[in-house]
Specification:
It is elongated and about 60 Å long. Helix content is about 90%, strand content about 0%. It has 2 domains: about 60 residues, no CATH class; about 45 residues. The longest helix has 27 residues. The two termini are about 35 Å apart. Helix 1 runs antiparallel to helix 2. About 5% of the residues are buried. The chain is built from 4 helices and no strands. Keywords: Membrane, Transmembrane, Transmembrane helix.
Length: about 120
């Protein structure tokens, strides 16, 4: 929570400082400059927020986050593999399971809408 608050609050000083820095170095105002200020302030505030979040998190939370990142990377890797080889039987099974899950979710939603 502290990381989120720090990131949001720090965006504005980072944007102001970036704007002043580009003024001092003579970059003309315009869309490119505004985009650059936005990107620089976003990256810096995100990094600061991540650092604060990392410092204030419990070890159990960090371990759970690490496991979630590993699972996500495995999922992305298998999805990329299926994009390259869609005829693989495992990919077809995963696609069928995803389609079945989607149908379940959609039927649940339409049931809720009819009742409401």
């Amino acid at each position: 929570m502290w990381g989120l608050i720090t990131g949001v609050v720090s965006y504005f000083p980072f944007a102001w400082y970036s704007h002043r820095y580009l003024d001092d170095h003579g970059m003309p105002p315009g869309f490119s400059r505004r985009l650059l200020v936005f990107i620089v302030a976003s990256v810096l505030s995100t990094g600061l927020g991540y650092g604060v979040s990392r410092l204030t998190s419990s070890p159990q939370h960090l371990q759970a986050e690490s496991q979630m990142q590993k699972k996500t990377m495995q999922l992305l890797g298998s999805t990329l593999h299926c994009v390259n080889e869609p005829s693989n039987p495992q990919c077809q099974q995963n696609a069928a399971e995803a389609h079945q899950l989607l149908q379940q979710m959609l039927s649940t939603e339409t049931g809720k809408q009819r009742q409401g």
